[in-house]
């Protein structure tokens, strides 16, 4: 799916490390007022005035976090930036800058790395963050991407994972589980392709799921939306590992329990259809499938009226005393303990 | 040299990703006033008040940047932090926080990663920086380390690479080339060890060189020292790739040329001896050997009197018009163009 064998290929050795950095960073524009000095020195310089700086970082490894057989490099670059921007959004902060480090083996020609950077630059543009630095080096095997995102916020606006209180409502943005099933569809197509490379897959019935997997978006809009509705979450996290795992993070750090209602978990109609086709339980997918990059947060019960009419938000449960534990209340009204299966990179 | 086969080994799979992060970060103390929120949320939160934030990042790959056959993990961790702290020092800023991301293959037991972290924590303590976040994941092959360092400075104090002027003096701290020859000594010992594992090497005559390679230090002291001497450099960079390469960076970004005097380049007596033993030209080593983490900077000529008596500084050349180019003036008084051989990761 990825490779056009006729495209021009420039070997990275011919450029050298400095040449590659220069080549990749020459068109990077700076738009943030807080960026005083960007790429080209030992470090970037940022000015946050009276605002606070928020910093997050991620490391992505080929074969562990992504498979280039179905993940086009431009999409990978876009997604890598989105995942980091999402962490800043989950602090109720505004993303402002990113640094990008990549290590590449010699199997990648310059054009491949350019494509990766195209996706990164596109995401930086769309989310209005400056690319202010990074590192470019070689790897012995595969592609490695490390991104650090920086954001700004007023101290009073920042929302941590540890502020949830008993009786708070648990709210999720958008829908969950689609990115995981998008991956399942792509994995199946990869296997079909390996058996018959001439097979032309019809991916139309899976378009939403595949887009959620290949080109997810961070919910940068939520901060503004909540401000408009005059709601400040008591705790917040983004859904990168899976709903279940993120709920457990909020509960543990806030020292509360939680009842999550199966019937309330928002799912896209396409996800419902595809879970039937794959004969997979949709709730398992919603609980354990990661990479949706939606936001999960808690609000005070009295704020319910302010958000209930907004289609971006779904109340999926409420917080309890810590000793009551963390449970899924099924449609059949049975109580099942939540497990942090999540996306466990080290056991895979 | 590294492994004690009898030491306890805990498989990383048993801990899981979250367990490993929790285990590695549980004793990390926070001492910086500017650290509002550290590890444990989607992002860390920093407060720089009226100071500016300075950000730098590095990606280190096993087999490319380090060889665990002679680099103990604790030293590697220490050095990885030092390399990043050094970049902040090279901005004439004070390092305050770091994030640490690592990817490890299953061949590393928990104890190995703990050792790596021990070195990182030690460096964080010595350089007084807070470890505020990071990412821990698996790799398909080897160890990958990504560190982002953050520092603070008054805007007026920050020194860029692009401020050097014609007639400015070129100054280097400490001595150069030793880290590279330390690596050569270790490479030789590795080969001896492979032929005869029972051979006990006598590394005493190389102790300084090996220490410069295995446990380099960042020149965090220089900012304060220059302040005391009332000297503000016009441009500055740290020596990570090699003197020649760093001089070229300063010249290109400042749009000046340079005359570097071979006889002025500071070398440790041990380096002189070992270069003779290895039959390697010491100037080649000083120019192209990297990882010394000394600072290279330019000052106005009228500041010469302020620094000339200080043993930390050596004037090694002066800046010229750009059109005169960048040259080494040899002991025999011949002019040789400087080349950015440096440490070219992509051609190796």
UniProtKB/TrEMBL annotation, chains A, B:
Residues that, per the record, bind Mg(2+) 5:
241
Q: Where is the PurM-like N-terminal domain?
A: 40-152
Q: What class of enzyme is it?
A: transferase
A GO molecular function assigned to this protein is: ATP binding
At which positions is Mg(2+) 3 bound? 42, 87, 238
Q: Where does ATP bind?
A: 117, 134-135, 161, 240
- InterPro entries membership: PurM-like_C_sf, PurM-like_N, PurM-like_N_sf, ThiL-like
Alphabetically, which GO biological process terms does the record hold? thiamine biosynthetic process; thiamine diphosphate biosynthetic process
Q: Which reaction does it catalyse?
A: thiamine phosphate + ATP = thiamine diphosphate + ADP
Keywords per UniProt:
ATP-binding, Kinase, Magnesium, Metal-binding, Nucleotide-binding, Thiamine biosynthesis, Transferase
Which Pfam families has this protein been placed in?
AIRS
EC number in record:
2.7.4.16
Q: Where does Mg(2+) 2 bind?
A: 58, 87
Query: What Gene3D superfamilies does UniProt report for this protein, alphabetically?
Result: PurM-like C-terminal domain (3.90.650.10), PurM-like, N-terminal domain (3.30.1330.10)
Highest taxon in the source lineage: Bacteria
The record's section on SUPFAM superfamilies has: PurM C-terminal domain-like, PurM N-terminal domain-like
Chain sites annotated for binding Mg(2+) 4 = 42, 56, 87
Q: Which residues bind substrate?
A: 65, 291, 343
Biological pathway:
Cofactor biosynthesis; thiamine diphosphate biosynthesis; thiamine diphosphate from thiamine phosphate: step 1/1
Record: residues binding Mg(2+) 1: 57-58, 135
The further comment given in this record reads: Reaction mechanism of ThiL seems to utilize a direct, inline transfer of the gamma-phosphate of ATP to TMP rather than a phosphorylated enzyme intermediate.
Member of which family? Belongs to the thiamine-monophosphate kinase family.
Q: What does this protein do?
A: Catalyzes the ATP-dependent phosphorylation of thiamine-monophosphate (TMP) to form thiamine-pyrophosphate (TPP), the active form of vitamin B1.
What PANTHER family does the database record attribute to this sequence? Answer: THIAMINE-MONOPHOSPHATE KINASE
Q: What is this protein called?
A: Thiamine-monophosphate kinase
Taxonomy, top ranks, is:
Bacteria, Pseudomonadati, Bacteroidota, Flavobacteriia, Flavobacteriales
């Amino acid at each position: 799916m990825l490779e056009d064998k006729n495209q021009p290929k420039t070997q990275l050795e011919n450029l050298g490390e400095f040449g590659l950095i220069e080549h990749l960073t020459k068109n990077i524009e700076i738009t943030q007022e807080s960026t005083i000095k960007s790429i080209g020195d030992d470090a970037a310089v940022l000015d946050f005035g009276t605002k606070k700086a928020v910093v997050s970082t991620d490391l992505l490894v080929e074969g562990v976090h992504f498979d280039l057989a179905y993940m086009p490099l431009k999409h990978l670059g876009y997604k890598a930036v989105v995942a980091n921007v999402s962490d800043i959004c989950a602090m109720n902060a505004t993303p402002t800058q990113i640094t990008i480090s990549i290590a590449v083996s010699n199997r990648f020609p310059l054009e491949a790395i350019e494509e990766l950077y195209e996706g990164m630059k596109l995401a930086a543009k769309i989310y209005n963050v400056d690319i202010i630095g990074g590192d470019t080096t070689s790897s012995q095997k595969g592609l490695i991407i490390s991104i650090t995102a920086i954001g700004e916020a007023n101290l009073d606006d920042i929302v941590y994972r540890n502020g949830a209180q008993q009786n708070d409502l648990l709210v999720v943005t958008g829908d969950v589980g689609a990115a995981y099933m998008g991956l399942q569809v792509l994995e199946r197509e990869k296997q079909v392709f390996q058996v018959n490379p001439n097979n032309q897959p019809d991916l139309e019935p899976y378009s939403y799921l595949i887009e959620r997997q290949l080109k997810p978006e961070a919910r940068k809009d939520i901060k503004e939306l909540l401000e408009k509705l005059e709601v400040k979450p008591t705790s917040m996290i983004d859904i990168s590992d899976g709903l279940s795992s993120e709920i457990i993070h909020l509960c543990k750090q806030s020292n509360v329990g939680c009842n999550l209602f199966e019937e309330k978990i928002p799912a896209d109609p396409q996800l419902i259809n595809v879970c039937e086709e794959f004969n997979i339980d949709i709730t398992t997918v919603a609980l354990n499938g990661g990479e949706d990059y939606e936001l999960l947060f808690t609000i005070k019960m009295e704020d319910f009226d302010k958000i209930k009419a907004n289609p971006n938000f779904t109340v999926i449960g409420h917080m309890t005393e810590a000793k009551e534990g963390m449970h899924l209340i099924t449609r059949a009204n049975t109580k099942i303990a939540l497990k942090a299966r999540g996306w466990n990179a080290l056991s895979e």
